[in-house]
Please model this.
Amino acid sequence: MEIGVYTGYSLLSTALALPEDGKILALDINRENYEIGLPIIEKAGVAHKIDFREGPALPLLDQMVDDVNFHGSFDFVFVDANKDNYLNYHKRLIDLVKVGGVIGYNNTLWNGSLVAPAYAPLRKYVRYYRDFVLELNKALAADPRVEICQLPVGDGITLCRRIS
Ligand SMILES: C[S@@+](CC[C@H](N)C(=O)[O-])C[C@H]1O[C@@H](n2cnc3c(N)ncnc32)[C@H](O)[C@@H]1O
Model:
């Protein structure tokens, strides 16, 4: 599953890495941006692996959590959307990813702002989301259901392997 597709850069990478019969559920509130990148996904021959759904991710995750058939049904989830909901996503994704499966949260270094002093000048959106990312990082570190590893590449990606 991917939450936050935009024009499909990470989606294409995942689709290329999957076997021929692999499937990705791709969620984004904006289909127009997905359609900008879709010709490239088609040219790469992987469009058949993607099930794109337009709309906010949280209600769809709630629907899946309500259906036990979806529990433990995902091998990998990449989360790269609105940071103010990451913790809400995690609360649901932990049921949907299988034991041994991985959830990746992008931007967990959040522009380096997490270690900035309170008086540091930060761009408005960086300051707004900062506390949500801090809260997520603390919750993941304390969550006994996952083993985590934060990769200091780009803006930071935290990989969480579900262990129970
Ligand atoms: C940083 S971009 C994703 C970039 C993409 N993963 C890539 O590699 O190019 C964030 C995306 O999250 C989407 N988004 C924001 N809020 C969302 C929500 N509540 N549910 C689903 N997608 C959302 C935005 O529309 C935007 O396309």
Residues 124-142 form the longest helix (19 residues). The mean pLDDT is 97.
